[in-house]
Every structure is written in C-alpha cells, then in structure tokens.
Design brief:
Elements (H helix, E strand, L loop, with lengths): L6 H20 L9 H9 L5 H4 L13
Helix pairs in contact: 1-2
C-alpha cells in the first residue's frame, strides 16, 4: 500500500480527529468516535477515499526522468 498522505495533511487529520474526540467526550455523544477515522488514516498515511479521486499529498523524492 503506497502512502498518499503528506505531512501537513497528516497533522491536520490528527488535530481534527482529536478535536472530534474531545467534542464527543464533552458533549457525551458517541458521534465523537468519528474522530478515530482521521487519526487512523494519519497513522497509516493512507486514505482510501483519495484513490478514486487521484489525490496524493505526499511529496515525492523521485527526480524527473528516473
């Protein structure tokens, strides 16, 4: 599985996930568990929703022509 989440995208996913978890905790709502999804995708650095859209936020280390 090739990574498709870059460092800025990864950081934003962690912040949003933690915010969703905290909001769910303080509001006593199970909807806060939705925050687990962005945290997990940030940990594995792969988002399946990016595949059909052709999105890749990783910076490649490959030089042109190689």
């Amino acid at each position: 599985m090739k990574t498709n989440i870059g460092s800025i995208d990864r950081t934003l996913r962690i912040v949003i996930g933690l915010g969703a978890l905290a909001t769910g905790y303080f509001l006593n709502s199970w909807w806060g568990l939705v925050g687990i999804v962005p945290i997990l995708t940030a940990i594995v650095r792969f988002c399946p929703a990016y595949l059909p859209l052709g999105i890749n936020t990783c910076q490649t280390d490959q030089k042109p022509g190689k």
